[in-house]
Design a protein that fits this description.
Layout: E1 4-11, H1 18-32, E2 37-44, H2 45-51, H3 55-71, E3 80-83, H4 89-98, H5 103-107, H6 110-121, H7 132-147, E4 152-154, H8 160-177, E5 185-187, H9 217-225, H10 244-252, H11 255-266, H12 271-298, H13 300-329, H14 343-348, E6 355-360, E7 366-371, E8 377-380, H15 387-400, H16 404-413, H17 423-441
Parallel strand pairs: 1-2, 2-3, 4-5
Antiparallel strand pairs: 6-7, 7-8
Helix pairs in contact: 2-7, 3-12, 4-7, 4-13, 7-8, 9-12, 10-12, 15-16, 15-17, 16-17
Bound molecules: tryptophan.
Length: 443
């Protein structure tokens, strides 16, 4: 069975809350134990630098998030759990991808556009307070994903555009330098509802309405007491619809427990009593993890060691892969197989490859074309009785295309099966063949 590679990053910019637990940590930990799955989880601390300029907060958040994932049952022996900044190949790949990403594509990224729109609305310079880091956010994320050739990337809906951009980066790079990257796919957990916060809006740090995952029981009790309810008195039936308390309960409870609370709402349970039920239910799940969390927080050196071991595992993949990518783009030792630069590639700055296309026409006969990357037809064959003959002719052209002179000879020898070409066409076709051959040889 072939394994599917899952990868996701967690920005180290805050303290994990119940919404993170229900929406990301818990499903990821469960998922990482499924057969046929290889998972990569990492602390996106380079990404955190885009939003946060408080070094103490970055460090603390990194520890809190790592401790939370470990306490929640992530097994670092089974998954690859690492810190982004421990893998220097990631920023290196980020640069390679920067060089194949259109600036216009990044102009359209939601997060950047939102800042520009806000500035424009406020009559400010469109780029006021926008760092190049924010602008480049999607490229760094592309490097995170493509570095490990992840197939699936579990993310929230707000991140789908970034995954699509990573796909485009993979395609552009592959087109220029050969097949190195797998196009990743966003994996959206439809079944995981977003958790409401204390005020009923989505639980989010930016609304300041969160319940930290590892609050003490007393803190948890205090925070739960602050969940917004309506003013219905004990004995009055209550609505489950729109009740943040009910939705949070549901995220932790079994179907039967949820049904029992639904009934209690109908029977007019007092809000205070419902809050006690919620406290007990959450604490039942969190308490066993709390001890482990507190132990990790008290022993950061344990977390540090686990992350360094994770980085070594990650780099066992990243280092050789990066070496291959360096070679592919031409960052090569000078004593290793010096090649003749391709005239076209030098002109364009990029290698856009011609392609052979074989097809069967309406007349039932077989043909092929050689087309430049821009679609211009450079060679058109005459009819062949079989696909095999057409294929053999393509193969011989590919074989003889190693340099332009050989390619010209080959084309000359094949006048009977090619449409007549004038000298200029012939030269262009020969050059295309040589370019194709060189590309194949270097990959
Ligand atoms: N941008 C993601 C978020 O804010 C975090 C992240 C960084 C990420 N790199 C990633 C997620 C790579 C998935 C894959 O949620």
């Amino acid at each position: 069975m072939s394994t599917v590679r899952f990868l996701t990053g967690i920005t180290t910019s805050g303290t994990p809350h119940l919404g993170n637990y229900v929406g990301s940590i818990r499903p990821a930990v469960r998922h990482s134990k499924a057969p046929g799955v290889e998972s990569f989880y990492f602390l996106a601390d380079y990404h955190a630098l885009i939003k946060i300029d408080d070094p103490a907060r970055i460090q603390r958040s990194t520890l809190e998030i790592a401790a939370s994932w470990l306490a929640a049952g992530l097994d670092p022996a089974h998954v690859t759990f690492y810190r982004q900044s421990d893998v220097p190949e990631i920023p290196e790949l980020c640069w390679f991808l920067t060089c194949v990403t259109g600036k216009g594509v990044l102009n359209r990224a939601h997060a950047y556009k939102a800042s520009v729109d806000k500035n424009t609305a406020a009559n400010l310079d469109p780029d006021a307070d926008v760092t190049a880091g924010l602008f480049m956010y999607p490229v760094l994320m592309g490097a995170d994903i493509l570095m490990f050739n992840a197939h699936k990337v579990p993310v929230g809906r707000d991140q789908i555009q970034h995954i699509e951009m990573a796909r485009d980066m993979a395609a552009s790079f592959n087109h220029l330098y050969g097949e190195h990257f797998v196009p990743p796919q966003a994996e959206i957990e439809e079944s995981v509802a977003t958790l409401p916060g204390l005020d009923g809006r989505k639980m989010s740090k930016s609304y300041d309405n969160t319940i930290p995952l590892f609050s003490s029981r007393e803190q948890l009790k205090k925070l739960i007491a602050g969940i917004k309810t309506d003013s219905r008195a004990p004995g009055e039936a209550k609505d489950t619809e729109g009740s943040a308390l009910f939705q949070i309960y549901q995220a932790f409870a079994s179907a039967e427990e949820t049904q029992a609370l639904r009934q209690a709402y109908a029977n007019g349970i007092a809000w205070g009593e419902a809050k006690d039920l919620l406290l007990e239910r959450i604490d039942r799940e969190v308490a066993p993890m709390r001890a482990a969390y507190e132990d990790y927080m008290a022993h950061p050196e344990k977390v540090e060691a686990l992350l360094l071991a994770g980085a070594a595992k990650a780099r066992a993949i990243a280092t050789p892969f990066m070496a291959r990518l360096r070679g592919a783009v031409g960052l090569r030792p000078l004593n290793a197989g010096l090649q003749t630069p391709n005239a076209n590639a030098a002109k364009a700055g990029k290698v856009a490859l011609p392609t052979f296309k074989q097809y069967r026409d309406k007349d039932g006969q077989f043909y092929f074309k050689l087309a430049a990357a821009d679609g211009t037809v450079l060679l058109q064959s005459r009819a062949f009785a079989s696909g095999k003959e057409a294929g053999q002719t393509i193969a011989s052209l590919q074989r003889d295309g190693r340099d332009a002179a050989l390619a010209l000879q080959a084309l000359g020898a094949l006048t009977d099966v090619l449409e007549p070409l004038d000298a200029a066409d012939l030269a262009a076709a020969a050059e295309a063949l040589a370019m194709l051959a060189e590309h194949v040889a270097s990959n």
